[in-house]
TrEMBL record:
Keyword Hydrolase: no
Transmembrane segments: 24-43, 154-172, 178-197
Domain ABC transporter: 355-588
Tree of life domain: Bacteria
Cellular component terms per the entry's GO annotation: plasma membrane
Membrane topology qualifier: Multi-pass membrane protein
Ranges for domain ABC transmembrane type-1: 27-321
One Pfam match: ABC_membrane
Protein location: Cell membrane
The protein's name: ATP-binding cassette domain-containing protein
Protein's organism: Caproicibacterium lactatifermentans
Main location: membrane
Gene Ontology molecular function, alphabetical: ABC-type oligopeptide transporter activity; ATP binding; ATP hydrolysis activity
Amino acid sequence: MKKRKKQGKSTLSQLRPYFAPHKWGFLMSALMVIAQSVCLAIMPSVEGRITTQLAADVTDMAKHISGAGIHYQAILHIILILVIIFIIKTIVGALSMISVTHATQGTMQTLRDALQKKIHTLPVSYFDEHPYGDVLSRITNDVDTISNACQMTLLDIVGGILSVALALVMMYRIQPVMAAVGTLIIPLALLITWVVVRCSQKQFRQQQDAVGQLNGRVTELYTGYHEILLYNKQKSAEQDFRKVNHHLQHYVFRAQFLSSTMSPLILLVTYLIIGSTAALGCNYVLAGGLTLGALQAFINYIWQLNDPLSRISQMSGQIQSAFAAAGRVTDFLAQPNEVPEADPPAELGKVHGQISFQHVSFSYGEREIIHDLSFTAQPGQMVAIVGPTGAGKTTLINLLLRFYDVGSGRILLDGRDIRSFRRDDLRSAFGMVLQDTWLFSGSVADNLRYGKLNARRDEVVSAAKAANVHHFIRTLPNGYDMRVNEEGSNISQGEKQLLTIARALLRDPPILILDEATSSVDTRLEKCLQDAMQNLLRGRTSFVIAHRLSTIRSADLILVLQDGRIVEQGTHQSLMEKGGFYARLYNAQFVQTE
């Protein structure tokens, strides 16, 4: 229990910097809640005065006292006071809600910005180990859960504590002995709350984790929709989804069931306390030590004790979900960042494009991916990297871009270790066409400008022409202004590949990386690409990874990787004459194409 308390305090302390800029909004809301609670505490006593006045008038009339009757003017005066108090309570309640909503949404915006910024500082290995859906859930679902708790629960908790305190003061003013009995509701309610929260806390954490798993599975089903249909795996996918969904339902049910027992138990205690104090109060009324209106007010104050305690108990599930969500968010924010930059970093300056790998090794966990790899690419050379799946081709590029840092050895750019540069500066020297093409929702022109946001329209068109995609764009509705759907679903895979190549060319980097750049392009488009590549890559250091070896015959240097080692290197002609691994690989592909 102590460990959980420490974790809760640690979570709150980590979130405090995000709430601090909006503290005045929360303070304003708290002041309005205080005013609202004071109004609420006054109302039962004022209502009791009406009952006392009516009881006195009826008693005088029953005794046939001369001039006895209902004092309507006095009663109307009391009702007017009640109306004024109610109006004030309503106004301050609205102001409180407005203040806390503004402060909460400002805090959540700050928190989301921090999470988004954190994403860009995390090492690539984090995303290799954590499902995309789980990361998405922390930024969306978990932040929304915290937001709902702050916006609604915070007011109820602060208002509830004040209402309980003021109700106790008023109860002890009316009758101390009865108040002592009525006060028993508090420790009993707290005991019930503590027991239920302790039993359900683990379930709420599992519930939030299950939501993240469900989001991850939904993302997989969506992104792999065509493959699922192609391989007739609909039933298998449905079974996997039902399994995850069943786990979520199981944890949600257990968490909500346990937390839902709290309110009925507190209500039972409240009725027992009211019955006891009402019986005791009747004796005081008959003895003349208490007015009927005071007894009515006292019972209303007991309900004022019950209401916030019941609301807090009903919100226990939301509170625990919020703590679980806050724990997941702070856990994400506390993840270690990438290896720190060099201090001070070296100036990149003009890049000539010489790349040198010197005895580079890299391991992912305990598995060695790259072993003692050495080669040099001279400025303007086209370097092709080939090899079977898992040979380390993409890892080599990831090391060059510092998505990962080398385990041993070093990589030099124009004779300087790439670790001496800021990552942003280093990557600004590269243009890259990824194996999985990525287009965002926006116009075709905006997608091409992604690598150079200030590019003029004529520069965009020139890059498209250079990538042999200009003619295709002209055939689209609205041409360069056509809106691309999310993930580019309204453009074929081949055209998307060419658009991403045009994007890289518009950036005009000194070094170009084509990662499986032609693997998704049909024969016709591949011919267009090959014709353009001879001119596009001239004067620019380039690295090309391709399974189609026919596309890299003109490469200045071909690196043949196998199990993370360079087993052969040279030109296409020299490697074919050697008759080694590359020649066998090339001939095998040539036979397949016959």
